[in-house]
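From the pipeline queue, job 12 of 40. The input is one protein chain; the requested action is below.

Action: predict structure.
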Amino acid sequence: MGEWIGRGRKARRAYGFDEIALVPGSVTINPAEVDVRLQLGSREHPIPIIAAAMDGVVDVAFAVAMGKLGGLAILNLEGIQTRYEDPAPPLKAIVEAPNETVTALLQKIYQAPIKEELIGRRIEEIKAGGALPVVSAIPQRAERFGPIAQEAGAGIFVVQSTVSTVRHVSSEYKLLELERFCSSMKVPVLVGNCVTYEVCLELLETGCSGLIIGVGPGAACTTRGVLGLGVPQVTATVDAAAARDFFYKRAGRYVPIITDGGMSTGGEICKALACGADGVIVGSAFARAHEAPGRGYHWGMATPHHNLPRGTRIHVGVTGSLEEILLGPARLDDGSQNLVGALRTCMGAVGARSLKEFQLTEVVIAPAIKTEGKLFQKAQNVGMGK
């Protein structure tokens, strides 16, 4: 399997969202009658879309607003929200900083220490707003922050790093024993990120309640450029789904997989879910919301290795309210609004009543899907021609 890339070396072909298309079904269904619920642990959530743990995307107010619309939003426990009593001034400084000075400013802002009392306070604020608090930390801090978050009322805890494995080797710091951590927590634990079948299987054995898939596809993530690491999201999702299904047959426990990054339009979200994901994590689409703390900018969470932001500040512009982006009605024609409506329409078109049925959708390799017949769209800068 694979293609020769040189003498004695083969590489497996992998696919991203722009290279595939979903095939319409022989039966169609009223989009209003399809089931798009996501189950994590014992809870069901109305929609399978989660806002990414990025400081430019999620704060307390955004998490509450997202919850009221049926979605989830992950608050980064190592970002601005837990370093500053009042996060508004540093957020404003980052948004208003010129491009030539913003990197130095980000470095300075993220050098402020994390205040553990703010972890509980932010979670309590989200809960008081009527939303389920979902929070994240890197493995090195999860053991300390997990119990604090749980006691404060967190509903889901996310252990997230650039690349996650069960067998991590280090003599410099204490390793997080994922299996022990998952069993000790009374709330669902999501673990990520990973992209290969073998690692997915090993992580599923830890007892986690969900697996996050994707290395480097996010708009603000520099992993692929700086380190050269990553697997295109379609292939990563399909491989992870195969691991999930094999684990379910062997262990009798279904663990959802959540594709993270590389999606900013309804079409990309549809492809991720049709390729096997149970849910998706999205950042840049929500950074465009009026409710986002970055107000049209987004930047990433702290990395496992230092206190610098994960990726540089990206300007995406404010395009509408969170409700318009998530539930519509869409005012734009580029697929960046009414994400749930797009999912329902696509599921209806392929004849899928539920997300599990949607995962059986026929997929074709279609490298010209974004350009075929789009001459006038490109000339007039509309739809996919933008």
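Job complete. The chain has one domain: 42-324.
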